[in-house]
Amino acid sequence: MQNITAEIKREQIGAFREYLNQRENADATIKKYITDISTFLRYLNNESTIDKQKLLDYKEWLLRRYAVSSVNSMLAALNQFLEFLNLSFLKVKRVKVQNNLFLKDEKELTKDEYRRLVKTAAEEGREQLALCIETIASTGIRISELEFFTVESVRRDYIEIVNKGKYRRIFLPKVLRQKLILFARKHGVQKGAIFVTRNGKPKNRSNIWREMKALEEKAGISGNKVFPHNLRHLFARIYYSVTKDLAGLADLLGHSSLNVTRIYTSNTGKIYQKQLDSLVDLRVRLTT
Q: What is the pLDDT of residues 202-258, one digit of tens each?
């Protein structure tokens, strides 16, 4: 088989960014792709010629430094970049991983830990952060959707989100709606985003992540569990445990695939072990 080579130039990153933007990818996705492609260019170390073997070597290099999930994510970004450059024939297969719907015990945020997070934030005088955590956990929203929680939308009982050509509606629990209205009134927020920084800009992923991480030691919670997206998973598990409505949960989370929603409703292996141990009807008493 003929070894086909191609040229890669650093200036192409700017054009790739614009391509992703025109394709209406989310801002977080664009940032992630550009970061991953920058990693690839650093690996090339000023070389501009690539071929399939060099890309396979890069894959092995990643596997020695990153978790498999991260490697696959970085390869996905690389393949998108190659496709943009009309070099699809050089795309690299992702690492095959056996499906595993069990959460790792050290990463599952429990209801008790969630309550401790909210309580600690309140005790530290971080009223906005406490309500922000409660809002994400009570609705299952993505952290990027928090900016759509405006005074106007909360007053009409639901949140409308129009982003990158997609529309969805988020419903608010009555108690949460009341808390949001009281918070806005207390802090003189008459219109616009309810959760804002000191400069008046809507809170974003990095703001909230950083503030949540500052709570982990005082709340007595492992740092592996304290991040905004874990609140979305907590909402999914609790909702499904009460309703058993996977399709309805998929709608609430904004998922187009039930397979993705199944991952969100996963429990740790300990839960399944307890369920197996409780199957009395299948026990066989052994006699000697």
A: 898 888 999 999 999 999 998 888 888 889 888 888 888 888 888 888 888 887 777
Residue pointed to by tokens 């703001």: 207
Q: How many angstroms separate the CA atoms of 182 and 59, rounded?
A: 52
DSSP 200-223: SPBP-HHHHHHHHHTTHHHHT--T
Q: Any idea which residue has 């009570």 for tokens?
A: 138
60 beta partners: none
Q: How far apart are CA 150 and CA 135, in angstroms?
A: 13
Cα(36)–Cα(40) distance, rounded to whole angstroms? 6
pTM over 0.90: no
Helix (H), strand (E) at residue 160: strand 158-163
Torsion of CA 50, 56, 61, 66, to 10 degrees: 120
Rounded distance, CA 88 to CA 85, Å?
Answer: 8
* Long-range contacts of the stretch 25-28 (C-beta < 8 A, 24+): 25/164, 26/144, 26/163, 26/164, 27/144, 28/144, 28/205
CA 261 to chain CA mean position, Å: 13
Counted residue by residue, the chain has a size of 288
Cβ atoms of 212 and 226 closer than 8 Å = yes
**Which residues fall within 8 angstroms of residue 255, CB to CB, at 6 or more apart?**
261, 264
Residue 155 CA to residue 157 CA, distance in Å, equals 6
